[in-house]
Amino acid sequence: MEISQVIEVVFKIIEFCLIGFALFFAWNLFMHSKNSGGGFSLKVSEYVELSVEPASVAIGAGQPAQTELIEAEKIPADYVFLNHISFLREEKQSEFQARTGLTGIPHYDIRVVVDSYYKGALDRVKYVEYFLHKSYEEPIQTRSQKQNRFLLKELANGEYVLQAKVYLRDRQEPFLLQRYITLSLDKNYIRT
Q: What is the pLDDT of residue 41?
């Protein structure tokens, strides 16, 4: 048997072992999630435990649900979330491009809000710290106005992942959220 054949056999054995380990891990994760109601948790530090479970609230289109959260319950992962809209204003392009110095690139308005379908959730939010793309002049911005759902109004000339820390009044550790900012040519959006 030549050396190349030996190496090929060794790689096949390693590949077989890796597939076996992956199947074993997936089966254990499946059984754990099945036994725990569909979720899993990971203790990150003494004070922080990440818990992932299926959403417990389903709402119909255009129906803002107001689900009660029992005080003793852990705060679910879907307690607050980010939502966004983007739109292009053709008539403002020369102004926006002059402001950023990036000519020939479309600049979209983006609006990002914190939302929840849990009753009183936004009342518990103290402030939100948004982390935009590093190319922004002010990439970290804070909002504390609950009445407009902690609205972030900005311009974007490319898609990116926006991150946010949502600080609750009665909790030391913030919620960490992400939203992929897409840019849309939605002409039906009513601008505010």
A: 56
Give me the number of domains the chain comprises: 1
CATH of the domain at 80: 2.60.40.1970
Are residues 163 and 177 in contact, defined by beta-carbon separation less than 8 angstroms? yes
User: Average pLDDT of 33-61?
Assistant: 56
CA distances from 19 to 8, 88, 159 (A): 16, 48, 36
Q: For residues 27 and 135, give the distance between their C-alpha atoms in angstroms, rounded to a whole number.
A: 43
Q: Region 97-101: what's the mean pLDDT?
A: 90
Give the count of beta carbons closer than 10 Å to the beta carbon of residue 101: 6
Indicate if the pLDDT at residue 107 is higher than 80.
yes
Mean pLDDT of the chain: 80
Quote the CA–CA distance of 36 and 189 in Å, as a whole number.
42
Lowest mean pLDDT across 10-14, 79-83, 149-153, 163-167: 10-14
- Measure the CA–CA gap between 42 and 31, rounded to whole angstroms: 16
Domain contains 187:
no
Question: With contact defined as beta carbons under 8 Å apart, do 154 and 110 qualify?
Answer: yes
168 lies in a domain?
yes
Range(s) of the domain holding residue 104: 60-181
Is there a domain that residue 18 lies in? no
